[in-house]
Specification:
By secondary structure, the protein is mainly α. It has helices spanning 6-17, 22-40, 59-65, 86-99, 104-113, 115-121, 136-151; strands at residues 20-21, 50-52, 55-57, 70-71. The chain has one domain (6-151). It has a two-stranded antiparallel ribbon. Strands 2-3 form a two-stranded antiparallel ribbon. The protein starts with 5 loop residues before the first helix and ends with a helix.
Length: 152
Protein backbone atom coordinates (compact mmCIF):
# COMPACT_ATOMS: atom_id res chain seq x y z
CA UNK A 1 0.00 0.00 0.00
CA UNK A 2 1.43 3.35 -0.97
CA UNK A 3 1.05 6.58 0.95
CA UNK A 4 -0.64 9.15 -1.27
CA UNK A 5 -0.86 12.93 -1.14
CA UNK A 6 -3.73 14.60 0.71
CA UNK A 7 -4.72 16.36 -2.51
CA UNK A 8 -5.08 12.99 -4.26
CA UNK A 9 -7.49 11.94 -1.49
CA UNK A 10 -9.36 15.25 -1.69
CA UNK A 11 -9.90 14.92 -5.44
CA UNK A 12 -11.08 11.33 -5.06
CA UNK A 13 -13.61 12.50 -2.45
CA UNK A 14 -14.77 15.38 -4.65
CA UNK A 15 -15.18 13.10 -7.66
CA UNK A 16 -17.28 10.72 -5.56
CA UNK A 17 -19.41 13.28 -3.67
CA UNK A 18 -19.36 16.35 -5.93
CA UNK A 19 -19.05 20.00 -4.96
CA UNK A 20 -18.86 20.67 -1.22
CA UNK A 21 -17.66 23.20 1.30
CA UNK A 22 -13.97 23.29 2.00
CA UNK A 23 -14.72 22.70 5.69
CA UNK A 24 -16.58 19.49 4.87
CA UNK A 25 -13.73 18.34 2.65
CA UNK A 26 -11.22 18.93 5.46
CA UNK A 27 -13.31 16.85 7.88
CA UNK A 28 -13.79 14.00 5.38
CA UNK A 29 -10.05 13.90 4.70
CA UNK A 30 -9.47 13.77 8.47
CA UNK A 31 -11.83 10.84 8.92
CA UNK A 32 -10.25 9.03 5.97
CA UNK A 33 -6.87 9.35 7.66
CA UNK A 34 -8.24 8.27 11.05
CA UNK A 35 -9.97 5.16 9.76
CA UNK A 36 -7.04 4.21 7.53
CA UNK A 37 -4.91 4.17 10.68
CA UNK A 38 -7.41 1.80 12.33
CA UNK A 39 -8.54 -0.45 9.47
CA UNK A 40 -5.40 -0.53 7.34
CA UNK A 41 -2.91 0.14 10.17
CA UNK A 42 -1.12 2.72 8.04
CA UNK A 43 -1.50 6.42 7.23
CA UNK A 44 -3.44 7.18 4.07
CA UNK A 45 -1.42 10.35 3.39
CA UNK A 46 1.73 11.81 4.91
CA UNK A 47 0.69 15.43 5.55
CA UNK A 48 0.07 16.44 9.16
CA UNK A 49 -3.34 17.30 10.57
CA UNK A 50 -3.58 20.30 12.89
CA UNK A 51 -6.11 21.11 15.62
CA UNK A 52 -7.42 24.42 14.33
CA UNK A 53 -10.33 26.19 16.02
CA UNK A 54 -12.87 24.92 13.44
CA UNK A 55 -11.63 21.35 13.76
CA UNK A 56 -8.93 19.24 12.14
CA UNK A 57 -7.19 20.84 9.13
CA UNK A 58 -4.48 19.69 6.74
CA UNK A 59 -2.46 22.79 5.90
CA UNK A 60 -1.50 21.63 2.39
CA UNK A 61 -5.16 21.16 1.52
CA UNK A 62 -6.06 24.47 3.16
CA UNK A 63 -3.38 26.24 1.09
CA UNK A 64 -4.89 24.71 -2.06
CA UNK A 65 -8.44 25.97 -1.29
CA UNK A 66 -7.69 29.12 0.71
CA UNK A 67 -10.27 31.82 0.01
CA UNK A 68 -12.87 29.36 -1.35
CA UNK A 69 -16.09 28.40 0.40
CA UNK A 70 -17.05 25.58 -1.98
CA UNK A 71 -14.74 23.42 -4.03
CA UNK A 72 -14.94 20.96 -6.93
CA UNK A 73 -12.35 18.45 -8.10
CA UNK A 74 -11.51 20.60 -11.14
CA UNK A 75 -9.97 23.21 -8.83
CA UNK A 76 -7.40 20.61 -7.77
CA UNK A 77 -6.83 19.23 -11.27
CA UNK A 78 -3.10 18.82 -10.66
CA UNK A 79 -3.69 16.06 -8.06
CA UNK A 80 -3.46 12.36 -8.92
CA UNK A 81 -6.35 10.33 -7.47
CA UNK A 82 -5.31 7.45 -9.75
CA UNK A 83 -2.44 6.85 -7.28
CA UNK A 84 -4.96 5.59 -4.71
CA UNK A 85 -4.95 1.78 -4.57
CA UNK A 86 -7.98 -0.49 -4.11
CA UNK A 87 -7.53 -0.92 -0.35
CA UNK A 88 -7.29 2.84 0.12
CA UNK A 89 -10.38 3.34 -2.07
CA UNK A 90 -12.27 0.85 0.10
CA UNK A 91 -11.38 2.83 3.21
CA UNK A 92 -12.28 6.19 1.65
CA UNK A 93 -15.55 4.78 0.27
CA UNK A 94 -16.51 3.40 3.70
CA UNK A 95 -15.80 6.79 5.31
CA UNK A 96 -17.86 8.55 2.64
CA UNK A 97 -20.69 6.07 3.16
CA UNK A 98 -20.81 6.86 6.89
CA UNK A 99 -19.84 10.55 7.05
CA UNK A 100 -20.34 11.84 3.50
CA UNK A 101 -23.99 12.90 3.65
CA UNK A 102 -23.61 15.00 6.80
CA UNK A 103 -23.19 18.77 6.70
CA UNK A 104 -19.87 20.48 7.26
CA UNK A 105 -21.19 21.87 10.57
CA UNK A 106 -22.28 18.43 11.77
CA UNK A 107 -18.84 17.02 10.93
CA UNK A 108 -17.08 19.94 12.61
CA UNK A 109 -19.23 19.56 15.72
CA UNK A 110 -18.45 15.83 15.79
CA UNK A 111 -14.70 16.41 15.66
CA UNK A 112 -15.06 18.89 18.53
CA UNK A 113 -16.61 16.14 20.69
CA UNK A 114 -13.88 13.61 19.99
CA UNK A 115 -10.66 13.16 21.97
CA UNK A 116 -8.00 13.65 19.25
CA UNK A 117 -9.07 17.25 18.55
CA UNK A 118 -10.12 18.04 22.15
CA UNK A 119 -6.86 16.79 23.63
CA UNK A 120 -4.74 18.64 21.05
CA UNK A 121 -6.67 21.87 21.81
CA UNK A 122 -6.51 21.50 25.60
CA UNK A 123 -5.68 24.85 27.19
CA UNK A 124 -6.04 26.82 23.93
CA UNK A 125 -8.76 29.52 23.87
CA UNK A 126 -11.70 28.66 21.61
CA UNK A 127 -10.95 30.96 18.66
CA UNK A 128 -7.15 31.07 18.96
CA UNK A 129 -5.04 29.67 16.14
CA UNK A 130 -3.02 26.57 16.88
CA UNK A 131 -0.27 24.68 15.14
CA UNK A 132 -0.60 21.64 17.39
CA UNK A 133 -0.66 18.40 15.44
CA UNK A 134 -3.29 15.73 15.94
CA UNK A 135 -0.97 12.73 15.96
CA UNK A 136 -1.51 9.42 14.22
CA UNK A 137 -1.19 7.72 17.61
CA UNK A 138 -3.98 9.86 19.10
CA UNK A 139 -6.27 9.17 16.14
CA UNK A 140 -5.54 5.43 16.01
CA UNK A 141 -6.06 4.97 19.74
CA UNK A 142 -9.33 6.90 19.85
CA UNK A 143 -10.98 5.48 16.71
CA UNK A 144 -9.79 1.95 17.51
CA UNK A 145 -11.59 2.30 20.86
CA UNK A 146 -14.80 3.09 18.97
CA UNK A 147 -14.62 -0.20 17.07
CA UNK A 148 -13.98 -2.07 20.33
CA UNK A 149 -16.99 -0.35 21.95
CA UNK A 150 -19.24 -1.33 19.04
CA UNK A 151 -18.08 -4.96 19.14
CA UNK A 152 -18.83 -5.42 22.85
Amino acid sequence: MSVVNVLDVAVYILKEKGKMTTMKLQKLVYYCQAWSLVWDETPLFEEKIYAWSNGPVVRELYDAHKGMFNITFSELSYAHPENIDSTQKETIDAVLEFYGNHSSQWLSDLTHMEDPWKNARKGIPENQRSEIEITHAAMAEYYESLTTDEES
